[in-house]
Amino acid sequence: MFSVLQDLGWFFRREKRRYTIGLVVLIIAGIVELLPPRLLGSAIDEIVRSTITTASLIKYIAMIIALLLLIYWITYIWMRSLFGGSNLVERLLRTRFMNHLLTLTPSFFERNRTGDLMARATNDIRAVSVTVGFGMLTLVDSTIFFAVVLLAMGFLVSWKLTLAAVLPLPLIAVAMVIYGRAIHDRYTLAQDAFGDMNDQVLESVSGVRVIRAYVQERLDEKRFGAITDDVYRKNMAVARVDSFFEPTIRFCVGLSYIIGLTYGIYLVLRNQITLGDLVSFNMYLGMIVWPMFAIGELINVMQRGGASLERIDETLNAVPDVRDPDHTVAVSEPGMIEFNNVTFRYPSSSIDNLTGISLSLSKGETLGVVGRTGSGKSTLLKQLLHEYPTGTGDIHISGVPIEKISLDRLHSWMGYVPQEQILFSKTVRENIQFGLVGASDEKILGAITTAAFRSDLDTLESGLDTLVGERGVSLSGGQKQRVSLSRAFIAEPEILILDDALSAVDARTEAQIVDNIRSQRAGKTTLISTHRLSAVEHADQIIVLDNGRIIERGTHAELLELNGWYREQYERQQVENNLG
What we know:
Membrane topology: Multi-pass membrane protein
Distance between the termini: 71 Å
Number of domains: 3
Number of helices: 22
Subcellular location: Cell membrane
CATH superfamily of the largest domain: ABC transporter type 1, transmembrane domain
Domain ABC transmembrane type-1: 21-304
CATH class of the largest domain: Mainly Alpha
GO molecular function, one term: ATP hydrolysis activity
Number of strands: 10
Pfam families: ABC_membrane, ABC_tran
């Protein structure tokens, strides 16, 4: 049960001073709280003996008030220390969690759902923060404070009465062990279900237009209702076990009160303790109620925190498929790009996605990659991003194997526009500045002009300050593509990778963008994959892929002479353009 505290040892060592102060002051607070009941018992004994005076009564009242003020002050100290630590570990874990996600490769996100990762970053981290705050409070109160109260009851009142009153306590220990195991298992299932629900909400919100277009609102409601019912059932399973904690403790505390009161009256009548002692004892017994509850809360919190930390660690312990080598080779700038008999297979694939790819691209040249859908165009371009472990064969940049180049250095050369444009829920300006942080409006407008987006900008309500909405929902497909292109252009990358990035614009706009690329990227390398052959007619070399293999290669004119797939596709597109 307490393994979660061992796993968080790094945090407690880091915040040793905070927790030393907090726990020591908490223990002092528990000891000081024992004094008012003892003073009250002494006052009652003086009343019974008729020896109390006005001066002694004022003395008792003043001492109790002073103790209450002292308790108030030291309670503030330990609460600030412990619960401040709770907020701190939440911030540290969330930062570490997010930073680690940014290091992970696409294969990790293919295996893990976004909704579940969000649940881990929110609910699970919150459960761990409760463990290091409220959990430490219940740990001290259910052990040290509990022991201090028992010692006070035994030494200051009566050991006989104390032993009799604590007879029901072993029942609590047995029940807590049983409940704790059940809480851990059920809470893990509940958190998994919460992740599923998060994922469904994300899909429904992002796909709301498709849902409405296909009139699937009622079906989506049913699907979401089934998921929320599952979350409800699993959380109710946790609540059913959780609800046993308090009744069990109250039952045992009630037995303690009955035993304490019955046996205490017997001892008073036998003159073995005074009436004041009995009153003090019952006050101590009332104080011991919280430590008994704390035992239940401790097990509950530790089991939840342990289950959540296991889920968080599962993500934090995930190792990226691609990491920097122990010894990188410094490359000042990218020169020739070479593929030497490269064969590659995705981790989730059962067949090779690229087979025997060999090509070379000199610095400043443009490569066109064409082929039917699913032929491996995107897969080929992504090899330069090094997001997946390389397969067989070699990929060199400036004569250096890509595996020996630092990932940060490699990615700093790249400008990548994928098939699916990802825009952030910010303004047009901020989305473009993502390619060059702090870029001036002059540079932004230059990139926009290159992407043939200048005329569209004037139609937007607030120009560069227009909010694009989540994933660019307020923009058309062509506008989203051109904002993404602007983001890549503004970085002026040494290697520009356009993965079917012109598919949503018309032929005239495409021609304008291609002309701008040719004129402004002289001396820099460009790779373009496309279905429209007009986008790569100007390329220095073009390769045609089919089932991950190069079946044709050459310039536009050379490929037309081959009378193969390229010529057939080119003529078909020319006919379509003429008919259009």
